[in-house]
Amino acid sequence: MISFKDIVAAVLTVVGVLFVALTIAAGLIWVERRLLAVWQDRYGPNRVGPLGLFQVLADTIKLLAKEDWIPPFADKPVFVIAPAIVMITVLFSFAVLPVARNIVIADLNVGLLYFLAMSSMGVYSIVLGGWASDNKYSLLGALRASAQMISYEVFMGLSLMGVVLVAGSFKLSDVVEWQNRNVWFVLPQFPGFVLFLIAGIAETRRLPFDLPEADSELVAGFHSEYSGMKFGMFFVGEYLGVTLVSALIAVLFFGGWLGPVFGLAGWARTALGIVWLLVKTFLFIGFFILLRAALPRPRFDQLMSWGWKWMLPLALANLLVTGAVVMTMSK
Amino acid sequence: MLSLLRTFWEILKHTFRRRLTVQYPEEKPYLAPRWRGRIILSRDPDGEERCVACYLCAVACPVDCISLQATEDKNGRRYPEFFRINFSRCIFCGFCEEACPTYAIQLTPDFEMGEYKRQNLVYEKEDLLISGPGKYPGYNFWRVAGVEIGGKGKGDAEREDPPTDVRSLLP
Question: Are B141 and B101 in contact (CB under 8 A)?
Answer without folding.
Answer: yes
